[in-house]
């Protein structure tokens, strides 16, 4: 097994281009959560030349709808959701500065091409490891769309969040 590569957010081209399919990566810094309902809202804002609720330049979006936190915990289970539901929106976000995505499962050809063209990266989180993922989350703040409940956009501070490179900036894909 390969050694872990530690990266911090926001991502830059140097970090992204050194990562290759299959690399085990530990992410530290700020990441954001969003699922399909929030993705649609973000793309609608972009298409209408409206400001986004956070600066997506160099950022990572984690496709997760976390469970409510139990007393004394920062967040509940925070396992990845299936990524293909974000495929219609991902190219637009990548073209507007998003650099990383975390989810589970394969992506369509248009997303893979957009990752390559925009020098982004897609990380796979291990499904079934929701508790492990939650342990890496140190703080949570809802920053947009609280009406979406679990799908609201959250700002997460993470420390050594474990993921694998599933699609690298060259467009190479693990699937």
Could you give the topology of this structure?
Layout (H helix, E strand, L loop, with lengths): L3 E5 L4 H6 L5 E10 L2 H12 L12 E3 L27 H6 L4 E4 L5 H9 L3 E4 L5 H6 L1 E8 L8 E15 L8
Parallel strand pairs: 1-2, 2-3, 3-4, 4-5
Antiparallel strand pairs: 2-7, 5-7, 6-7
Largest sheet: 5 strands, mixed, barrel
CATH topology: fumarase
The overall number of domains is 1
Taken in chain order, the helices and strands follow as: EHEHEHEHEHEE
- The span between the termini is 18 Å
CATH superfamily: Fe-S hydro-lyase, tartrate dehydratase beta-type, catalytic domain
* Level-2 CATH architecture: Alpha-Beta Barrel
In short:
The chain has helices spanning about 15-20, 35-45, 90-95, 110-115, 130-135, and strands at about 5-10, 25-35, 60, 100-105, 120-125, 135-145, 155-165. With about 180 residues, the chain is an alpha/beta fold. It has one domain: Fe-S hydro-lyase, tartrate dehydratase beta-type, catalytic domain (fumarase).
